[in-house]
């Protein structure tokens, strides 16, 4: 069997500060990237001593999800929900569902600037969190 890719089809965020669960719907055909986080080795070509011994720096990183989500500014209020999640003092439970059946769940929060594109009816979505994520297959 070949590799099966496809769209990120749903992002569910559960947090009591938004009154439960909010579902965001990614735009079809857009790239989405998922970095599971964990230990990463620094990419530094000069990471060596004068004797040629390697210097490797290892850091723990957060998981990260990037996507483009639909934005219904009149009724669905995606931008306001993301703003509320950023203001929250508790991490959000996330569930990312892909069209190939894969799901990832993790704890974290939306990060970075929040800006909706009124012409395209989209928002650039980015969330990060602890390096512990769980892959499920439906």
What does this structure look like?
- By secondary structure, this protein is mainly beta.
- The protein has one helix at 78-87, and strands spanning 8-15, 20-24, 33-35, 38-41, 58-61, 63-70, 92-98, 102-110, 116-117, 122-137.
- The strands form two sheets. Strands 1, 2, 3, 6, 7, 8, 9 and 10 form an eight-stranded antiparallel β-sheet that branches. It has a two-stranded antiparallel ribbon with strand order 4-5.
- The radius of gyration is 18 Å and the shape is globular.
Radius of gyration: 18 Å
Average pLDDT rating = 92
Question: How helix-rich are the residues, as a percent range?
Answer: under 10%
The sequence of SSEs as H and E is EEEEEEHEEEE
Ends distance? 17 Å
Category from helices, strands and their pairing: mainly beta
The biggest beta sheet is recorded as:
8 strands, antiparallel
Taken from the alpha-carbon principal axes, the silhouette is: globular
Percent of residues in β-strands: over 45%
By DSSP, the count of extended strands is 10
The number of helical runs is: 1
User: Low-confidence runs (pLDDT<50, min 5 residues)?
Assistant: none
For this entry, give a set of tags.
single chain, two-stranded antiparallel ribbon, mainly beta, eight-stranded antiparallel β-sheet, globular, 48% strand, 10 strands, 138 residues
Summarize this entry quickly.
With 138 residues, this protein is mainly beta.
């Amino acid at each position: 069997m070949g590799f099966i890719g496809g769209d990120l089809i749903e992002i569910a965020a559960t947090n009591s500060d938004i009154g439960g669960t909010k579902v965001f719907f990614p735009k079809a055909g857009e790239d989405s990237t998922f970095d599971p986080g964990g230990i990463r080795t620094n990419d530094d070509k000069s990471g060596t001593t004068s004797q040629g011994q390697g210097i490797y720096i290892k850091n723990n990183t957060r998981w990260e999800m990037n996507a483009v989500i639909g934005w219904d500014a009149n009724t669905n209020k995606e931008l306001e929900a993301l703003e509320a999640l950023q203001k929250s003092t508790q991490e959000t439970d996330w569930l990312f569902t892909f069209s190939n059946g894969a799901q990832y769940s993790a704890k974290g929060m939306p990060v970075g600037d929040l800006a909706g594109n009124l012409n395209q009816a989209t928002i650039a979505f980015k969330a990060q969190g602890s390096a512990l994520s769980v892959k499920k297959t439906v």
